[in-house]
């Protein structure tokens, strides 16, 4: 299975997992000039921007560690642009979560890092 397919499978698995945790999907794979946000979901009154990471090897740190400061800045800028185009969401609380899948051949056991980083 190629890397892109594994990544999409991990995103789909994360969506199912988070839906079971009562989060509601707003948008998937939002793209703009700054980057992409894998999942945008609502958790109660909060808007949650979610980065899904999958690592099949222990080299270079784990999946969560791969969300570097540079990647965080891109996600934050993308989220700010997303919110700027949706006035009804601008006054909502927001957070940035990471769903990490570590070293499995297939995504099975996510590690959910709520509020993984801040603006």
UniProtKB/TrEMBL annotation:
UniProt xrefs under CDD domains: PoNe_Nuclease
State the superkingdom.
Answer: Bacteria
Extract the InterPro entries matched here: Restrct_endonuc-II-like, tRNA_endonuc-like_dom_sf, UPF0102_YraN-like
State the similarity comment: Belongs to the UPF0102 family.
Q: What SUPFAM superfamilies does the record tag this protein with?
A: Restriction endonuclease-like
Pfam families per UniProt: UPF0102 (PF02021)
Q: What's this protein's name?
A: UPF0102 protein MED92_15880
Single GO MF descriptor: nucleic acid binding
What PANTHER family does UniProt report for this protein, alphabetically? UPF0102 PROTEIN YRAN
